[in-house]
Design brief:
48% of the residues lie in helices and 12% in strands. With 85 residues, it is mainly alpha-helical. It folds into two domains: 44 residues, no CATH class; 35 residues, no CATH class. Strands 1-2 form a two-stranded antiparallel ribbon. The protein is elongated and about 40 Å long. It starts with a helix and ends with a helix.
Length: 85
């Protein structure tokens, strides 16, 4: 179900439209969406991200500097890049 939730996030569709197209019950999807958010929540308000394919993560700092981070980069390294000081 988590893969479907990630597919929904990428789709840009409303939950109602997505579950109708996937032939999934709305309450079932909402239940798993809640579980997904709980599992992926971490301290400090960050959520776990799962890159799709060979995608890169792009971080843009307030000063305009951008970092492109390859998929598969350990979360601890990304956390070091996010920390501003």
């Amino acid at each position: 179900m988590f893969e479907l939730i990630e597919a929904w996030k990428i789709s840009g569709e409303t939950i109602k439209d997505f579950v109708a197209r996937q032939d999934i019950g709305l309450s079932k999807f909402q239940y798993w969406h809640k579980k997904y958010r709980e599992q992926n929540a971490t301290e400090g308000g960050f959520i776990r991200m799962h890159p799709i394919g060979g995608m890169e993560l792009r971080l843009r700092y307030p000063n305009g500097v951008e970092l492109l981070i390859p998929s598969g980069t350990p979360p601890s390294h990304i956390a070091e890049l996010i920390h501003l000081g």
